[in-house]
Here is the input.
Amino acid sequence: MTLIDSALTGLRNTSLPEAVSVVLGLLYSILAVRRTRWCWVAGGISSAIAVALAWQAKLPMQACLQGYYVGMAVYGFWHWSRDAGKETAVTTWPIRAHVIGLIVVLALSMLTARVLASETQAAWPFLDSFTTWGSLLATWLTAQVKLENWLYWIFFDAISAFLFATQGLMFFALLMAVYLVIASFGFVSWSRSRRAPAPSS
Here is the structure.
């Protein structure tokens, strides 16, 4: 089966709730690039649907991850609403904070990878753990309006696309590739905004 055939098969087998979740997830990414607080509404609803879908699919860790995204959507909407009527200013994270954050992500990834390797039949224990913990960090950076969040998303979306593709989930691999492109545009857009006055919303 070719890549296109796999993608089309995945599309045909997509349920309505899953389709709505995916569309809202894409809308979240696009609105996040534009730095509008409504991205968090789209993202929160998308993740809430994903919680139910993951739980029904007997994927408790993914359900917990999506639950975290719902919580971050609430926090992100509140945080971005504090300067209502103005675009939230883009800031950067100090190098020291990046080093500490990555060390924590790596440590947690190795810990959960050992559990997955010994207690489950996970195909890629470390990479699966690494992308999960890295995504948590990237989501928090997005809520904090840190420019580097897009670099994290580019990196982790690329790994996720690889993981899904190797496991035959071509539709999700394609979705990650789309997220990767959006994240690239997001980085360029937010970088430009730091060199120019923020326009009125």
Notes: Helices lie at 3-12, 16-33, 38-56, 60-81, 95-119, 125-143, 149-166, 170-193. The first helix runs from residue 3 to 12. The two ends are 47 Å apart (CA to CA).
